[in-house]
Every structure is written in structure tokens, then in C-alpha cells.
Amino acid sequence: MSTVLVTGANSGLGAEVARVLAEAGAEVILACRDVDKASAVADTIDGKTEVRSLDLADLSSIHTFADELPRSVDVLVNNAGVMGVPRGTTADGFESHIGTNHLGAFALTGLLIDRVRDRVVTVSSGLHVLGRIHDDLNWEHRRYQRWLAYGQSKLANLLFAYELHRRLSAAGRTTISVAAHPGVAATEGQRRDTSIQGKLLAGGPAQTPVMGALPILYAATEAGVAGTCVGPDGFLQRRGHPTLVRTSRRSRDTALAAALWERSERLTGVRYALASR
Ligand SMILES: NC(=O)c1ccc[n+]([C@@H]2O[C@H](COP(=O)([O-])OP(=O)(O)OC[C@H]3O[C@@H](n4cnc5c(N)ncnc54)[C@H](OP(=O)(O)O)[C@@H]3O)[C@@H](O)[C@H]2O)c1
């Protein structure tokens, strides 16, 4: 039986991924900042689940989580994320989107990488196309724009997922890294932004969370996905069934990915010692 760790599994796509994998026989760890909400979801799942506390907007919580995780996992799904939220900062002073969605996932993965046997799946978004990796990563010196901040974090997710795969392969590891994106799916995160801008970006009717979870499930379980991105096969990758998708040219920029990696190590204090095993 395989073990899968899903971050942000107390709602939306993460809950759906946890449900499907647990009901298919996996042991699923729901790693969530709200353990009551996570326990309520776990209670509805007909399978083996465990709830653990993890706040990706707080490096000390990520360290505690990693220190206390008692075992290895087969699959780590970096799903948790904030979407289009007003300007805010994490416990460590990072802008909320980049801090939670990228730096949190980067730190968690780095602390667990020697304990992930099969693969790391990182959830990005079609809105990565809006993103640029700014010198001012934390939006301290320009007017804050929430969807551009989200776009930056989701571009960072892709740069990270691809770079992680290159580094794992170069180190001779068998663990793979895969990116996934759900298209547009009706979840709390997607509904929370009721601005016209948010609705326009969501682009038409959303598919169900069950459909949105499919690319993540495909990335977590199928062969032949190493170093790729899985997304929906429909128009503009907004809806449909999972397939390997092309992401922006910027997301495949290896120099940008390497620079972001060094910066993420510096900011989080988490260093990946991949070559040393
Ligand atoms: N829905 C879409 O159309 C869509 C499109 C593209 C990409 N995505 C991506 O899909 C992923 C899941 O989003 P969703 O649509 O399922 O939204 P959601 O229902 O809002 O779920 C987001 C999850 O992330 C968790 N989370 C947020 N901040 C966290 C933190 N600091 N520490 C730990 N967990 C945290 C949330 O926990 P709380 O309940 O405690 O807030 C929640 O469980 C995200 O990465 C999102 O960017 C979604």
C-alpha cells in the first residue's frame, strides 16, 4: 500500500485528491493548517487517513511538521495554496502568495525529499502565464496586484517542479517531480474572489472539483510524467481530461529556475543536499 501526503487536503481539490487515493487503497496524510476542518473531511473518507498540522505560511510549522513526520511517503502532493488574496505576509514576512504557494512548498519538499520514495507533485495554475519572477519578490516596492502576485507564485511552482526534476535526475535519484494544474474548478479558493477581474480570469463556468482533481491524480499515479506538467485537455486548458500540457516559455527557462532555486534556499534557509547521497 502506498502512502500519500497531500497539503491543503481539508477543502477543494486537495480533499478530492485525498478521497480518491484513500478510497483506492492508499494511506493518506492530510497536512492542513486547520486540523478540525481536515478531521471533518477525513471522517467522510472511506479509507485510511491521518491528519497532521501544517501551516505553509510559517517556516517553524514546516520544520515541526517535517521533524515529527514518523515515516517516508511514496508521493508528496504540494497542493495547498492561497488564490488572489489581499496583500498580506506570512509569519516570516514573505508576501502571502509567494510565501505560502512557493516558498512553503519549497521548504517542505526540501525537508522531506530524502523521505519521498516515488514522486513530488506540485500544483500550479494556468494563470502562471501572468507571472514574472520579480527582483521585488515580496511586492514591497510596487503597487500590489493580487492576481499578478498569484501568477508569480504559480510560475514559481512550475519553475520549481521542473528544476527539482532536473536536480533529482542529475543526482541519480529515482524520485521524480511532476507539475499539474486543474484548469478552472469550482472550489472555495476559486469562489472567494468575487471581483470582476477575478471572474474574468476564471474565464467562464468552472468544472467540478472532481474534474479539477483529475490532472493532479494523473500526475500522482501515472507513468511517463516525469518532469512534465499535467493539465486538462480542453480549450485553453481550462477544462477536460488530463493530458501532458505545454506551459509558458518562461516556466521552462532553466536559468530563471536555477536563480529562483538559489534565492528560495537563501530565503527559507532550506538547502537541498541532493548530490550527497
Ligand atoms: N480551483 C481552481 O480553479 C484552481 C485553478 C488553478 C490552480 N488551482 C490550485 O489548486 C490548489 C488547490 O486550490 P483549491 O482550488 O482547492 O482552493 P481551496 O479550496 O481554497 O483549497 C486550498 C487549500 O490550501 C490550504 N492552505 C492555504 N493556505 C495554507 C497554509 N498557509 N498552510 C496550509 N494549507 C493552506 C487551504 O486551507 P484552509 O482551508 O485552512 O484555508 C485549503 O485546504 C491551489 O494550489 C491553487 O492555486 C486551483
Automatic annotation (TrEMBL):
Entry keywords, A to Z: Oxidoreductase
Similarity annotation: Belongs to the short-chain dehydrogenases/reductases (SDR) family.
Source domain of life: Bacteria
Keyword RNA-binding listed: no
Entry GO MF terms: oxidoreductase activity
Official protein name in the record: Short-chain dehydrogenase
Keyword hit for Oxidoreductase: yes
Species whose genome carries this gene: Cryptosporangium aurantiacum
Record InterPro entries: NAD(P)-bd_dom_sf (IPR036291), SDR_fam (IPR002347)
